[in-house]
């Protein structure tokens, strides 16, 4: 699949998610729901960042905490919401968000990798035992159209390094400051 670029529409997708439901008794008060493209992109200008996996070092040390701590600064620059996408299931994403003390950014569990594949960003990480995962990227999306793409260099299957910098919250903030909001 060809990598999406600025001016392209994001691929259609629906993500199964577990959501808290206080009407359910017991130790696991969650039910299945679905998050769709419309929920995330329709009529909004959002930042989406995608990463190789929950609980991994760069993702947990820099990227997620960086976007969480810069949430207000990014929103103040004309962004409605910030989403984190990973090829992980909803259980893993919910636990990781709790572990990371995420309160503001929203997690998108792309467990089957459908959205990631549609973005042209699905890559093999078999060398690490990860299977297929997302290459690290970020984007500003305006009403479903990619306004700006940030992609880490060296996209390849079974990459032996974990590049990070182009997709940092600071890079996104620099871009947002440079455009007329």
Could you describe the 3D structure shown?
With 181 residues, this protein is α/β, with parallel strands linked by helices. The protein has one domain: Glutaredoxin, CATH 3.40.30.10. Helix content is 27%, strand content 28%. The chain has six helices and nine strands, in the order E-E-H-E-H-H-E-H-E-H-E-E-E-E-H. The strands form three sheets. A five-stranded mixed β-sheet has the order 5-4-3-8-9. Strand 4 (81-86), helix 4 and strand 5 form a beta-alpha-beta unit. It is globular, with a radius of gyration of 16 Å. The chain starts with 13 loop residues before the first strand and ends with a helix. The mean pLDDT is 96.
CATH topology: Glutaredoxin
Query: What's the name of the CATH homologous superfamily?
Result: Glutaredoxin
Per CATH, the class reads Alpha Beta
Helix content: 25-40%
Cα-to-Cα separation, first versus last residue: 32 Å
Radius of gyration: 16 Å
Succession of helices and strands: EEHEHHEHEHEEEEH
Strand content: 25-35%
- Number of discrete domains: 1
Low-confidence stretches: none
* Whole-number mean pLDDT: 96
Structure class? alpha/beta
| Form type | globular
CATH architecture: 3-Layer(aba) Sandwich
**Biggest β-sheet: count, sense, barrel?**
5 strands, mixed
Read across the widest sheet, the strand sequence of neighbours is: 5-4-3-8-9
Gist of the model:
With 181 residues, this protein is an alpha/beta fold. The protein has six helices and nine strands.
Write the layout of secondary structure elements.
Layout: E1 14-20, E2 30-36, H1 37-41, E3 45-51, H2 57-69, H3 71-75, E4 81-86, H4 90-99, E5 106-109, H5 114-118, E6 122-124, E7 132-134, E8 137-142, E9 145-151, H6 169-178
Parallel strand pairs: 3-4, 4-5
Antiparallel strand pairs: 1-2, 3-8, 6-7, 8-9
């Amino acid at each position: 699949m060809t990598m999406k670029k600025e001016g392209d529409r994001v691929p259609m997708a629906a993500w199964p998610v577990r959501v808290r439901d206080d009407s359910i008794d017991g130790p696991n008060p969650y039910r299945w729901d679905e998050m769709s493209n419309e929920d995330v992109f329709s009529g909004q200008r959002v930042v989406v960042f995608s990463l190789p996996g929950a609980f991994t070092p760069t993702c947990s040390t820099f990227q997620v905490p960086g976007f969480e701590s810069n949430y207000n600064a990014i929103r103040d620059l004309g962004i409605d919401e910030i989403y984190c996408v990973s090829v992980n299931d909803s259980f893993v994403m919910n636990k990781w968000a709790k572990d990371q003390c995420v309160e503001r950014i929203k997690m998108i569990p792309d467990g089957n990798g459908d959205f990631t594949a549609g973005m042209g960003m699905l890559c093999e990480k078999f060398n690490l035992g990860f299977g297929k995962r997302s290459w690290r990227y970020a984007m500003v999306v305006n009403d479903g159209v990619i306004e700006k793409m940030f992609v880490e260099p060296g996209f390849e299957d079974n990459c032996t390094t974990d590049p990070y910098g182009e997709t940092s919250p600071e890079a996104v903030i620099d871009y947002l400051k440079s455009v007329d909001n």
